[in-house]
Amino acid sequence: MSDEKQEIKGLLDYIYLFLKWRWFIAINFLLVVLITYGITLMLPKWYYSNSLVLPPRDKGAGTLMGMGNIARMVGLGGPAGLLGHQEIFSYMSILKSRTLQETIINEFNLFDVYKIDNNSIEDALEELRSNIEFKIDEEGALEIGVYDKDPARAADMANRFVELLHQHNTELGVSEARARRKFIERRLEQNKIELAELEERVRNFQADHGIIVLPDQADQSIKGIAEIYAARTIKELERDVVQEVVGHDNPLYRRAQLELNALNRKLADIPDQTIESLRIAREFVIQQKIFEMLTPLLEEARLEELRDTPTVLVLDRAVPAEEKSRPKRLLITLAMGIVSLIVSIGYIVSTNSIHSIRDTDPGKYKTIEEIGKILRNPFRKI
Fold this sequence. Notes:
Blueprint: H1 3-20, H2 22-42, E1 47-54, H3 59-62, H4 65-73, H5 82-95, H6 98-107, H7 110-113, H8 121-129, E2 132-136, E3 142-148, H9 151-209, H10 215-246, H11 251-269, H12 272-306, E4 313-316, H13 329-360, H14 362-376
Antiparallel strand pairs: 1-3, 1-4, 2-3
Helix pairs in contact: 2-13, 6-8, 9-12, 10-11, 10-12, 13-14
C-alpha cells in the first residue's frame, strides 16, 4: 500500500474515532463550559479607572534652564523629546516608591479592603501592586490605573495617586532647587572674594610698576604675543626641516636661523611686567565673566525654590467605571472549553492506542497495565 493510501486510511480512522466518541466530547465540553461560567459568576467584579498625565511643557525652562537650553540646541528638548521622556520615567519611579504606596494603603484603609488579617504592610503592598498599572501610551502620556471592587474607590485611588505624584515631585523639585541655590551662593561668594583679591592685586601692581592694567585691552595684547610665539614655533620647525634636508651650512638654513633670532629678540623685548599685567587682566576678565554668569543663575534658583506651578499636567481625571473590567467571563469560559476539547481528544487517542496495543502486542500491554497499577498506588511493593 502506498504512503498516500496509508495517510488517507489513518485520517479516516481518526475521523471514525472522533465520530464514535462524539457524545463524550460534546458532553464533556458542555459540562466544562457550564461549570466554568458558573464559577466566574461567583467571582467578585473588579472595576478599572485610570488617569492620564503629562509633564509641564515649560519644565525645561525652569528647573533645568542650563541643561534644557543645551538639550534643545542638540535637538533633545520639547514635550516629546528626551527630557520629556526622562520626566515621565521619574514619575513612574515616584509612583512605584514604597513611601507613596504606603500613603495610599493607609488613606484608603486597604488592610480591610484587601482583608489583610495580620496587618502586614508587605502583604498590603504586594496586593496593591497587583491591582495598579503605570504605563506610557503611544502618545507619550503616563496612564495611572487602579483595579478595585468598588468603582468609586478605584477612581478616587487613581486621582489620589496623581495628587501624591504632584506633591512628591514638587518636594523633590524644591529640594533640588534649594541645593542648587546653596551651591551657586557658595560659588558666587568665592568669586566675589577672588575678584576683591584681584582688584587689590591690580592696585598694588599699578602702584609698584606704574603700568595700568586694562582688562578691555588684554585680549588684543595677549593675541599679539601669542602670534609671535606661534610664528617662532613655525620658524623653528622650518629651520629643522631645512637642516635635515640640506644641512646647516646651506644659506636657507642661515636665513631661517636669522629670522628665528629676530623673533626671539621680539619676545625678549617684552618686559616681564607686561606679561604679568596681561596675566592679571586675563584672570580679572575670567572672574568677571563668572560673576556675570552666576548672578542670574542664582536668581533663577531662588525663584525656582519659591515657585508653585503645577509639576503634573492632568489630561484626564479618573472617573468611576460603569462596567466591570474583570473577570473576563467569556474569555475564561472559552479557554476552559478549548482545554476540555484538548483533554478529551488526548484521552480518546491514548485509549484507542492502548486498545490497539492490547490486540497486537500483549507483552507491551501487560507493561502498560503494570505502569497503571503503580500510578494508582505508588506506595505498593512491586
